[in-house]
Amino acid sequence: MIFCRNVVIYFDRGTQEQLFKRFCGKLAPGGYLFIGHSESLTGMDLPLVPVAPTVYRKT
Q: 36 to each of 4, 27, 30, how far by Cα in Å?
């Protein structure tokens, strides 16, 4: 599990995507990423599927 809530909103979109890709590299398949309500993964090419509004699971 990785919890990164209400931090990524302070970075530009490119940096956000790089950070989320790095998180995905550290997550085991089936692992969870928790983000803040103000953050979004929309349009990013990540191996994550939504589980709840701010919870994603690695495929």
A: 7, 18, 20
Cα-based distances in Å from 39 to 10, 23, 35, 58? 10, 15, 6, 17
Per-residue pLDDT tens digits for 1-48:
999 999 999 999 999 999 999 999 999 999 999 999 999 999 999 999
The H-or-E segment that residue 13 falls in is helix 13-26
**Residue 26, C-beta contacts closer than 8 angstroms, at least 6 positions apart:** 2
pTM of the model: 0.92
Report the relative pairing of strands 48-52 and 55-58 from DSSP bridges.
antiparallel
User: What residues does each domain of the chain span?
Assistant: 2-58
